[in-house]
Amino acid sequence: MNTYKFPEGFLWGGATAANQIEGGFNEGNKGLNVAVVLPGGKARYDILTKPGFDFEIKPDQYYPNHEAIDFYHRYKEDIALFAEMGFKAFRMSIAWTRIFPNGDEIEPNEEGLQFYDRVLDELHKHGIEPVVTISHYEMPLHLVMEYGGWRNRKVVTFFERYANTILTRYKDKVKYWMTFNEINSALVMPINGLGFSIEKEEDRYQPTFQAYHHQLVASAIAVKACHEIIPGSEIGCMILFAPVYPFDSNPDNVLHALKEEQIFNYFCGDVQVRGEYPSFMNRYFKEHNIQLEIEENDLEVLKEGTVDYVGFSYYMSRTEKKEKAAEDASEGNIIGGVRNPFLEVSDWGWEIDPVGLRISLNKLYDRYQIPLFIVENGLGAYDKIEEDGSINDDYRIGYLQEHIKAMGEAIEDGVDLMGYTSWGCIDMVSMSTGEFSKRYGYIYVDKHDDGSGTLERIKKKSFFWYKDVIKTNGKKL
């Protein structure tokens, strides 16, 4: 068995999102965001991807993000558990609506700012480095209903005010930042990332890419502000990355896979890393009749606001062919594609491909030549509590072992990898389905799909395994 050599100071840890763990949705003067109007259950994915969502809370629906796992009240207990595992870093997000409840206020909400002061202080007390995402799938609902989400240029100004507020407030507490979570995912799920529901499928392109332009400008503004407000800080982009394989060696399928990878995997990253729109987008805009409204200084802003590192999530690869029938579809993969016959799938149908992580790391580093940071990777699975109270999640350990091996191989390939915060270090609400039963964590939370449960925290077998991985800096897998 290979012994992998990870860099000294490698940022081992775990990742979460405010909307999926905090709860306390109406406490501390917090406003409503898009996450709290999404009902639980497998129907959620259709809401996220298909036209016509109304963003209303209905009395006959269950909304799991309202309480989530109650990190809002239990953060000290949870952070102590992360510290027990030896976390070097904890990826978290700040809820925009805790700081600006409607999103367009002039003055921030002091109660929300104080909450994150306490969380960040608790992390530092345990020697854990915070890695903070500024916007993670929780746009203020008022900005959605009043302004139309990121389609509206005014939102750039509101985001700039929010970003400057938290960068200034936490400048002595946070070194590592990211702007928008999985920014490219809005090509599939615009509600989460861009704050609007497509009205008609055929009208998807123009509003989506205009909103993207506004968001990319806002990201660049935040990057520049971070460098000015916090000297020595590092701020990255965050991409949902899934390498795209051609189904076979048919040149038509190879070309189709290339085009899909350019648009989904590289468009946003190219703008945020290189500071300009990639040339391949010119044809794409022309073919889809997209005409961007670009203000006078926007391109200069993009050039001045390039990121220090590329953060990305990796859960699956994607296989494509140009002509595909309905029966070819890979049902579980949330970003489409056809079934890859060489891969096993998770309980939720997500294809499991650790080699794809090594491929992704090599592709990204070859393209950008700046440090990479895996800020999400993990296995959503059903967990069972045994009669003795233990949870033997060997399937999760096996999944993570193979992906960490792939990381070690990529480092040997020459990739500059700065850290690994696996997704769902503690069980939480699933983003795509709103389920609690889709568990990722090293820590089990007694919370169930119907909202029942005590919220008790239980260490799984993987808790102790990951503790050893961190303690040995990846030597003991």
From TrEMBL:
Pfam families, per database record: Glyco_hydro_1
PANTHER family: 6-PHOSPHO-BETA-GLUCOSIDASE ASCB-RELATED (PTHR10353:SF122), GLYCOSYL HYDROLASE (PTHR10353)
Record-annotated active site: 376
Keyword Transmembrane helix: no
Gene3D superfamilies with a match to the protein in the record: Glycosidases
E.C. code: 3.2.1.86
Protein name: 6-phospho-beta-glucosidase
Keyword Hydrolase: yes
Keyword annotations from UniProtKB, A to Z: Glycosidase, Hydrolase
Organism: Mesobacillus jeotgali
Gene that encodes the chain: ascB
Recorded GO MF terms: 6-phospho-beta-glucosidase activity
Alphabetical list of InterPro entries matching this protein: GH, GH_1_N_CS, Glyco_hydro_1, Glyco_hydro_1_AS
